[in-house]
Amino acid sequence: MVIRGSKGNPAAMQLEGSVSHVIFQRFLSGFVPYVQLRNQQATALNSANSEKQRDSLMAAYAATNASMQQLIDQLVSQEPASPVSTFVLAATYGFFNDMAWLEKNFELLKSPARQSASGQQVNAMIQDGKIGAVGSKAIDFTQADTSGKMVSLSSFKGKYVLVDFWASWCGPCRQENPNVVYNFKKFSPKNFTVLGVSLDREDQRNKWLEAIKKDQLTWTHVSDLKFWNNEAARLYRVNGIPYNFLVDPSGTIIAKNLRGPALEAKLCEVLGCK
User: Fold this and answer.
1) Over the range 4-25, which residues count as b (16 or more CB within 10 Å of their CB) and which as e?
2) Pick from 70, 97, 129: which residue ends a domain?
3) What is the torsional sign of CA 204, 210, 216, 219?
4) Is the preceding omega at residue 249 within 30 degrees of 0, hence cis?
5) Average pLDDT of the segment spanning 82-104
6) What is the model's pLDDT at position 96?
């Protein structure tokens, strides 16, 4: 089996090899329309003018995600020995960030699929995902805030807290910030807050502070200003930003990597949107 295209865009990928090609094309014929619909819904959400409209679009977006996962479940069930199944799991996991779902499907696969290159990739994702996994207790860390005061994650116990890894130099992080601001304003009266963890460097301290002010990030921010060697980022195996995880009042991680509409959807689920 030969893979061509970009793993970040499963709809544009090609698998060469007679049997694999047929299986993959059959899957794509049903999956791609949902990807297109999901993109349209995400665009509509970003320009929604009212709370009622956003809630309606959020419900539709969640339903589309569920339909996409069902198609992948179907593929794994029908083709448990095919490397196409593991390839699709690896390539689409970022749509859902649902480790329990990924592990459940991986356990259904047979040896040829598990031992393929993409099967090994999925297994590595699962093993790495168990560090700071959903359902586990958040590991405590302490770093200095913008005034130099030491702040610990554990000091937020009793609240829902989004631990948000970002940096002033990170374009996608800055693009995501308005979404975090929107949700902070909406849900902070409901026992929710954000703890920003910056991967800026020591010589970027002023840029970090300027970005906080410019983007109107009015929650607590901490950093050790060690760039990718940030100790909290290393602790949680952060290898790309933006990245976040949501901790409940008991200190348990209940969701990870909530971006775009997914953040509001999860907060609505646990805190209510009425």
Assistant:
1) eeeeeebbebebeeeebeebbe
2) 129
3) positive
4) no
5) 91
6) 84
Residues 147 and 265 in one domain: yes
55/86 same-domain check: yes
Do 109 and 87 have their domain in common? yes
149/70 same-domain check? no
Q: Which of 97, 129, 161 is the last residue of a domain?
A: 129
The answer to whether 156 touches 193, Cβ cutoff 8 Å, is: yes
Q: Are 97 and 256 in contact (CB under 8 A)?
A: yes
Q: What is the tens place of the pLDDT at every residue in 176-230?
A: 999 999 999 999 999 999 999 999 999 999 999 999 999 999 999 999 999 999 9
Considering the entire predicted model, what is its pTM?
0.59
Q: Are residues 112 and 170 in the same domain?
A: no
In angstroms, the CA 187 to CA 208 distance is 25
Residues 6+ apart with CB under 8 A from 217: 177, 180, 181, 194, 196, 211
Boundaries of domain holding 125? 2-129
Please, are residues 36 and 26 in contact by the beta-carbon 8 Å criterion? no
